[in-house]
Amino acid sequence: MKFSTLFTLISTSLLLTACSTQEVANNKTEKLPKNIIYMIGDGMSMAHLTAYRHYANSSEQHIGLGNKVVPQTIFDEYFVGVASTLPDDDTLVTDSASSATALASGEKTYNGAIGLDNDKSNLTSILEHAKFKGMLTGTISTSQVTHATPASFLAHNESRHNQNEIADAIFDQHINYKVKADLMLGGGTDYFIREDRNLVKEFKQIGFNYFSELSQLSDMDQLPVLGLFAPKGLPYAIDSQDNPNRLLAMTKPALSLLNKNNPNGFFLMIEGSQIDWCSHSNDIACAMQEMEDFAQTLSAVIEFAKKDGNTLVVLTADHGTGGLSVGANKQYKWLPNVIHKVKASAGELVKSIFASKDIAKTWLDSTGFELTSEQLTSVKELKAQDKSKELYAKIMKFINDQSFTGWTTTGHVGDDVAVIAYGPQSNKFVGAQDNTDLAKKLLSYIKTK
Ligand SMILES: [Zn+2]
């Protein structure tokens, strides 16, 4: 461990001891959690939650019949508050690195920073504190392990783009002479297996069990574990028809493994990474399928926490992405049934149009609605001109217009995000707070161990 890391750990731990004494005094009647599961829906705005509620229940809605009740989702059931997400500059709109650092350490920083403050000093993450306290630790994401959110829990780097350096740091930076995480599942072989260094080999040499296929996860019976299931991020849920709920597939066996013969408890970060990626593309069908995987993962996590009785679950988002709106184009309606019928992400739709001899039929088969003759002509023209980027934007517009889905940007937004919590101390997350408060509260529970 570098001296600066050690110093940060010690100084932060002194500060947190003071903070935790206060917390314990406030909470003396309520037990503290043994395990902490922190779930982050990357790019998941409040509108994503509303849209998902209608999407999940669209077959049960009786539009126009009066007294319509849309059943709650798992997110609604445990909703307790909201969090602001602004970064430590004058932009008010955060990127995933700055917000993940805030969620991981309780400190705000500049956009792009991985576990560093504005002066580029290391900020100790909750995961690092947990390891320091002898807890088992893990991250699960559908992005690569080196991507902004998991990276902010596992490493320190001045830029989120230095993913090779981040992969190196995940192996090289230690706490108590050990790698910081006992379990890492996600994508990222491109960054772990390189010409200059094979980190998978190095992880195996220090005793890590390595998995490269999601189907192997049932064989996962011993920690530590590294699972890398794609060169970068995993394929989109909507394009993974054999196993769309891959976050759930990673999470279920991970929970049993982390909980096995573990008196000290565990800290696990689970990221629904690609809600953000689909929303950057303004691809509503892609985003809703990611929300489905995230919702099912939350259900499994809550089920585990209910059975365990000593697990605190906190779920939030790092920011909203896309400026999603439920309704668009001055029309007072939103049609989730249209979205249900779309069978592929925009990227895959473009590929199938380029490969197709009958565009009208290919489109109808993949989306469930017909193109107008005007739309069909414009698609044919863009295909003939080999303009895949323009075609991508055009077909997203067709689906968004057809379902009355609105987007204001292909970037992030500064809206407050949801806070969802269950388990011991979950009442401390009620109300409006800043994203750094979530980390500070979680850290206070770890510091009392
Ligand atoms: Zn993003």
UniProtKB/TrEMBL annotation:
InterPro entries, alphabetized: Alkaline_phosphatase, Alkaline_phosphatase_AS, Alkaline_phosphatase_core_sf
CDD domains with a match to the protein in the record: ALP
Name of the protein described by the UniProt record: Alkaline phosphatase
Lipid biosynthesis listed as a keyword: no
Swiss-Prot/TrEMBL keywords: Hydrolase, Magnesium, Metal-binding, Phosphoprotein, Signal, Zinc
Transmembrane segments: none
Pfam families: Alk_phosphatase (PF00245)
UniProt signal peptide: 1-25
Cofactor(s) needed for function: Mg(2+); Zn(2+)
Family per similarity comment: Belongs to the alkaline phosphatase family.
